[in-house]
Specification:
By secondary structure, the protein is an all-alpha fold. The chain has two domains: 13-87, no CATH class; 94-120. It has helices at 3-15, 17-22, 26-63, 70-85, 93-119. The longest helix has 38 residues, at 26-63.
Length: 120
């Protein structure tokens, strides 16, 4: 087993996620995926509804703008997300790459130090 495999095994044991996931049957995994999908869609619908309520409560009275339907507010939410967040994920997509590079560098340093200790 290589050093990389050992590090992955230690990481999996640390979080205990793979064993939890592996204990699930295929049917349970599919049902969980469907459930999370439904929850995600419900969350998006809730966000669109909140935008609609806030817009219709504030904007017509303050600025004299028209009221929005649910679908218009959902579209507005998507548009603002694209415009202000950009195509990347999260506010600073390059930050995740920097974290991965730091982890890899520390891992390589750890492996090198272990090799040097074993050579002594």
């Amino acid at each position: 087993m290589s050093d990389f495999d050992n590090a992955q095994t230690m990481e999996h044991k640390k979080h205990n996620m793979p064993s939890w996931w592996e204990e699930r049957t295929l049917a349970q995994k599919i049902l969980m995926g469907i459930g999370f999908g439904i929850l995600g869609l419900g969350f998006l619908a809730l966000c669109g509804w909140i935008v609609m309520l806030l817009w219709n409560w504030l904007m017509p009275d303050i600025f004299g703008l028209k009221t929005l339907t649910f679908w218009q507010s959902s579209g507005l939410l998507v548009l603002t997300s694209i415009l202000f967040k950009g195509p990347g994920h999260g506010p600073n997509p390059g930050q995740n790459e920097m974290k991965r590079k730091r982890k890899l560098k520390s891992y390589l340093q750890e492996v090198e130090s272990q090799k040097q200790e074993s050579a002594k």
